[in-house]
Design goal:
heterodimer, A: alpha+beta, four-stranded mixed beta sheet, 11 helices, B: mainly alpha, 13 helices, 5% strand
């Protein structure tokens, strides 16, 4: 969106309060959704729970195509549609709810930097594992991605998506990485997150922020998704404070409210 | 470690040891950690490869890509992060990710995609350092690679249109520069008084943006307003790269000499002119002072004067 359009949208957003019937769209939970999309969706759900905003999760097979930017999840609030965690955080801020207002400038810079770290390393590693690792692709991804569609559409869509992701990996220099190198990167990222978290309950001590939501989304999904091998979740399990962190957020924001996390 | 370490990378200009961001990162890290690096600048002979620059060659290894080179140097005990705490090490990773995601697309765009900049500055500079006929092909390929990277990581499928992405990437880059400036504050380096990996990365990406002269300078102007980042780059250049500047960029030194010559010539010419005027004034003192007021008249007034004389 151009700058003018975005300013216009935030003004409209600021005008109305959060409605009761806000919905979040993602792909079909049981058969279709993949690891990376599930992580993103869970991150947004966690963020909205932390802001105390009610949201209903709706699963649609064509959620990816409905989204304005092509990425899931997206939320439908009032008569606006916003996709991806970054723009959703800004949208929610325009409506007057924010988790990071109490941070000073340096902390905000740190928060943004760590969010980019998660996107850069964890998300890219998840995409690599799903689409560039032949074993996973063959057994899980292809079957899941095209499952709502009839033959031959399911194969065509899956191959098209795989080609797109491989192009992106090559452009950012991950094309030549082996699976072991990718897992090492994941380990480095988890180590950095674990060191930053330390013994605190959340990343910025007492209050959760969007960084906590994002990290929770990714780590919880990695820990609870069944893949061809368990190496990815083993890397995360090495860090006990990250496990405790996930458990804490799950208990506080998902189980207590009577909702199931994944 | 006594093994000779050779780095081949792109050369320098505009006061920098190298114009290529990744090469500069490696050079800065080597200076900070005290690694004895022999720098081979790529020139337009056929010697050496120019594919995955920067490349570090030792007796038995060839390492490419800045992250891997830095890891290799650390394993060889050249570690600039020795005094950092665990949390600071984690911060380093996070800020490097921030720079790569938010700042790099806009830097790539300024250097390689913005057509004014690319055609007048980047392409001639790189083409002059690549042997013919590769010089016709390679810059174009690098430009396409940069455009590809920007579109694939920031563009929205299925359109992949550049115009929609441009505004967004420059906005992100300006925000990233602001965040870096906030984080640096008044301290000399990012983590106290000694430079570390993060300083090398920030310097590597900011210095070319700061120093290279471009026609379209949107991002450069923004950077120049953040005085602590400019001071950071200048400090590193002066303390770590000043001694080698004389050796590495003789072209720069010649340019300075040429400019000095031109300036001296101009000054001489001016002083000659002043002497001549002085002589003229001395030789003709009988110029009637009455002539001077008429010289001050504008043409319109002169005309009206002559008209008045005509009318009875």
């Amino acid at each position: 969106m151009s700058l003018v359009a975005e300013a216009f949208v935030s003004q409209i957003a600021a005008a109305e309060p959060w409605p009761e019937n806000a919905t979040l769209y993602q792909q079909l939970k049981g058969e279709q959704i993949l690891l990376s999309d599930n992580a993103a969706s869970l991150a947004v759900q966690a963020f909205l729970q932390m802001c105390n905003l009610p949201i209903k999760v709706v699963c649609r097979a064509n959620a990816e195509y409905m989204s304005p930017s092509g990425k899931v999840p997206f939320i439908h609030v009032g008569n606006q549609v916003v996709s991806e965690l970054g723009p959703i955080v800004q949208f929610v801020k325009a409506k007057g709810h924010s988790l990071s207002d109490g941070l000073d400038e340096v902390q905000k810079a740190e928060m943004k930097a760590y969010m980019e770290l998660v996107n850069n390393m964890l998300l890219t590693a998840e995409l690599y594992l799903q689409w560039c690792d032949e074993a996973t692709v063959g057994e899980i991804t292809h079957a899941r991605y095209g499952s709502p569609y009839p033959w031959p559409l399911n194969h065509i869509l899956a191959y098209q998506k795989q080609w797109e992701v491989k192009r992106k990996m090559k452009a950012i220099g991950w094309g030549n990485k082996t699976l072991d190198q990718v897992l090492e990167d994941v380990d480095q990222c988890c180590q950095a997150l674990s060191q930053r978290l330390g013994t605190q309950p959340y990343f910025f001590n007492k209050q959760p922020t969007e960084l906590d939501a994002l990290v929770f989304g990714h780590l919880y999904t990695i820990l609870t998704t069944q893949l061809t091998n368990d190496e990815l979740s083993e890397k995360v399990k090495n860090y006990s404070n990250l496990l405790a962190f996930c458990r804490r957020i799950e208990q506080h924001y998902f189980e207590d409210r009577g909702k199931v996390g994944v | 470690m006594a093994a000779p370490l050779e780095l081949s990378c792109w050369g320098g200009g505009w006061g920098l040891p190298s114009v290529h961001s990744e090469s500069l990162v490696v050079m800065a890290y080597a200076k900070f950690s005290g690694a004895p690096l022999k720098v081979n600048v790529i020139d337009n002979t056929w010697r050496g490869s120019r594919g995955d620059v920067p490349i570090l060659t030792t007796e038995d290894n060839i390492v490419s890509q800045p992250a891997k080179i830095l890891n290799f140097l650390r394993k060889q005990k050249y570690n600039a992060d020795y005094e950092l705490s665990a949390k600071q090490g984690a911060d380093t990773l996070a800020y490097i990710a921030l720079i790569e995601e938010k700042l790099l697309p806009a830097v790539l765009h300024t250097f390689w995609v913005e057509s004014d900049n690319y055609l007048t500055v980047t392409k001639p500079w790189f083409a002059s350092r690549i042997p013919f006929p590769l010089s016709l092909i390679l810059p174009g390929r690098m430009s396409k690679g940069a455009l590809n990277r920007i579109l694939l990581t920031r563009g929205e499928p299925p359109l992949y249109h550049l115009r929609e992405v441009e505004a967004q990437i420059y906005r992100d880059a300006k925000e990233c520069l602001n965040l870096l400036s906030n984080r640096l504050g008044k301290s000399q380096f990012f983590f106290g008084d000694t430079p570390s990996t993060l300083d090398a990365y920030v310097f590597g990406f900011l210095a070319p943006l700061y120093k290279v002269r471009f026609p379209k300078v949107q991002l450069q102007e923004h950077l120049k307003q953040l005085s602590n980042l400019c001071r950071f780059c200048d400090d590193i250049l002066n303390s770590y790269f000043r001694l080698s500047l004389g050796g590495i960029s003789p072209a720069g030194q010649e340019m300075v000499d040429a400019n000095l010559q031109k300036l001296t010539q101009l000054v001489n010419k001016e002083s000659n002119l002043i002497e001549k005027m002085d002589d003229n004034l001395r030789q003709s003192p009988q110029l009637p002072p009455r002539k001077l007021p008429t010289l001050k008249l504008t043409p319109a007034e002169e005309e009206s004067n002559s008209l008045q004389r005509l009318s009875p």
